[in-house]
Amino acid sequence: MPVPPATPRPTLEAVAARAGVSRATVSRVVNGGAGVTEQLAARVRRAVDELGYVPNRAARALVTRRHDAVAVVIAEPETRVFTDPFFALQLRGISDELTARDAQLVLMLTRGDEDSERVGRYLAGGHVDGALVFSVHLDDPLPGLVRRAGLPAVFGGRPGDPAATPYVDCDNRGGARAAVRHLASLGRRRIAHISGPLDQTSAVDRLDGWRDITEAAGSGLEAGPGLLAYGDFTPEGGARAMSALLERRPDLDGVFAASDLTASGALWALRDAGLRVPEDVAVVGFDDLRTVAQHTEPPLTTVRQDIEEMGRLMARSLLDAGDRAGSPESAKRDGVILPTTLVRRASG
Fold first, then answer.
1. Number of neighbours of residue 301 by Cβ within 10 angstroms
2. Distance (Å, whole) CA 241 – CA 220
3. Tally of CA atoms within 13 A in the half-sphere of 272 that contains its CB
4. Chain segment 90-122, per-residue pLDDT in tens
């Protein structure tokens, strides 16, 4: 059976003829250029709709030097990214904003220096208009590679490299203080902390927030290394750290965990040790991952950060910076810190 010939794609010239304007006018309207009256622009848009014209992205990129694509670089292996709901929420926020702006998301994961070099080469190759980079570790080469690529970038979380800006983060230290103050308000005096990996600034800031309250003069709280254990933002790491704390300090009566996943593991260990939550030990997490916090036993009191909004704001900041390229505003290099709130549930 013969294959019918393909219907030719409408061209800029066809749109121009339908709208009764020049090809250059159509090009300016389609590519978002200036210098076209609203009346002419409306005629062009009507002709585009009537003919079903779809811009040729490759040709548009040659003219505008824009690809309408953004690299999202996560400095974690796929085993972490696809099991931790934090990343799903942040990617959802990023994707929502990019979709609304008709931009494509290119996801890139790194597991070490070789992967980082690969990502650096890709970014320098001119395939995308910018990069959103998050979960960066303190010794990570990614910030330097992104700078050398010469692309606009926004970081998720405060990077350890002071030059890696702009960034979007939450008030990690303030949220940690609120968590510990809440445990103290319940009458808990031996409040332990299970940290995240200390090669990430979010974990360092949350540890500092715990110390701010427990070490404050006149707090009435115990402090010291015996009440600190190191985790890795995973349930398994939280369970191991909780067991180690109970061996050292079986009399502890409160726990601030650096993430909800860490707290979920701590709850397992407390249950295995025969301790009741919150009667014997009150527990507070961080993130408010609702698929985790609402389904632990008991449901988890936690510090909420708006993870999706962080993703949206990262994407919006990057795209707006691209639209302002060359303007005085494009030179602004700073960070945005979003507020956190305590969400009370049954664990403390």
1. 24
2. 24
3. 11
4. 999 999 999 988 888 999 998 777 788 888 888
d(CA 348, CA 132) in angstroms, rounded, equals 36
Average predicted confidence (pLDDT) for the chain: 87
Q: How far apart are CA 149 and CA 348, in angstroms?
A: 47
Question: Which pTM does this prediction carry?
Answer: 0.79
User: Environment class of residue 243 by beta-carbon count within 10 Å: exposed (0-12), middle (13-18) or buried (19+)?
Assistant: middle
Question: Residue 232's closest CA among 219, 246, 242?
Answer: 242
Taking the CB of residue 343, how many other CB atoms lie within 10 A of it?
17
Cα–Cα distance between 43 and 22 in angstroms, integer? 12
Name the token pair of 88: 């799903």
DSSP state of 10: P
Q: Is 55 exposed, middle or buried (0-12, 13-18, 19+ CB in 10 A)?
A: middle
Alpha carbon distance 172, 177 (integer Å): 9
As a whole number of angstroms, the distance between CA 231 and CA 237 comes to 5
Which helix (H) or strand (E) segment holds residue 338: the answer is: strand 335-338
